[in-house]
């Protein structure tokens, strides 16, 4: 996230069980920008964590799981439950908030919360003189914005899940979201709701979409579907994505079309830089 003629300002806090960092890019020589927006983003995410954390006994989600009526809880819990139900239908059962037989919206909430905070507090910065881009990174899941008047590109590296510290591909994003899921970072933690078994065939799945909410859900779907099944991309409206299997096989798509790639070999995947944008730069 750098470039000649630009300055980067960054802030970071640990929230929602991960490190959240905020980055604002300005033209060299422009005043520092983004401090208030960063504080507002962090406060927004802490509030969402207060309501939705499954690790806090006093959270609204924990109270719901303990038998409290939905009508007595924060109204956002119902909104999230409805959204999770809609995603379960859209994913044809590959995503659910009920994989453990109790309500756990964690697979939805982080992406949704980070996107909402970014759109409310960071996106308006793009109109500030001297600011060319702003973005948020929550444990590798990103929502990114760039000014129409700038040629800035966000360069996002995709880690090799089989060789820590190495990169298998680089994505260049103007505006959009990037989300990654899989077993490489957190081990086996995703359950296939159709079978109740752990999803283990995908080491890493990275999805690029307009929205981090969508990218995060579809990355989970990619892990659940498995490395041999890309049928879901026809319904997903993602921009592109890469799935790396537990054996090192690589599958990549653009839109709803799969692109021939190959294997991860000696720390190198046969991938090229992919410029991605929802608009002309």
Automatic annotation (TrEMBL):
Keywords: FAD, Flavoprotein, Magnesium, Metal-binding, Transferase
Cofactor(s), by name: Mg(2+)
Pfam families in the cross-refs: ApbE (PF02424)
Catalytic EC class: transferase
Catalytic activity: L-threonyl-[protein] + FAD = FMN-L-threonyl-[protein] + AMP + H(+)
InterPro entries: ApbE, ApbE-like_sf
The protein's name in its UniProt record: FAD:protein FMN transferase
Coiled-coil positions: none
GO molecular function: metal ion binding; transferase activity
EC number(s) stated in the UniProt entry for this protein: 2.7.1.180
Gene3D superfamilies in the cross-refs: ApbE-like domains
